[in-house]
Amino acid sequence: MMPTERMPREIAVAAADEIRRLNECTGRPGAYPYPTDVHHTVGALAGLLEQLPRTLHQLAAGLNAIDPEHLAVLEDPPTPVQKQADVAYELGCAIAAIERAGTHLRQAQHTAAELVYTGPVPGV
Predict the structure, then answer these.
(1) C-alpha closest to that of 68 among 83, 54, 58
(2) What is the pLDDT of residues 59-111, one digit of tens each?
(3) Are 81 and 65 in contact (CB under 8 A)?
């Protein structure tokens, strides 16, 4: 790993922080003054979701790459290999749900693009 690269966990924490900031921003009145603002925000979020399945696949591969001889579980059984399989199963379920959500977000984005703002424009 290059010294300037961050660990995946650091990037994931930063991404979660940004989503929290987005939640704070979108909750305020007037956050979306124009339909194009909704269109672009939904599009960006759809793009984020479209990338998550690959990230989760790589996460599962990373976990499975750890030698089971170097892992333990808090209770026996199950074995570390079974726990790795359990994690992979849950990630697979999450991936399927994320892919469905991404499809719906893209549809919402396309539908929002059909809206045209006809109200007053401040400063004009």
Answers:
(1) 83
(2) 999 999 999 889 999 887 778 989 999 999 999 999 999 999 999 999 999 99
(3) no
Question: Whole-angstrom Cα distance, residue 51 to residue 82?
Answer: 27
Radius of gyration for the chain, computed over Cα atoms and rounded to the nearest angstrom = 20
CA gap 2, 18 in Å, rounded: 24
- C-alpha 21/C-alpha 28 separation (Å) is 12
**What distance in Å separates the CA atoms of residue 25 and residue 43, rounded to the nearest whole number?**
17
DSSP string, 16-78: HHHHHHHHHHHTSTTS--SHHHHHHHHHHHHHHHHHHHHHHHHHHHHHHTS-GGG---SSSSS
pLDDT at 2: 56
The answer to whether residues 47 and 120 touch, using CB atoms and an 8 Å cutoff, is no
Tens digits of per-residue pLDDT, 93-102?
999 999 999 9
* Spatial contact of 65 and 87, defined as CB atoms under 8 Å apart: no
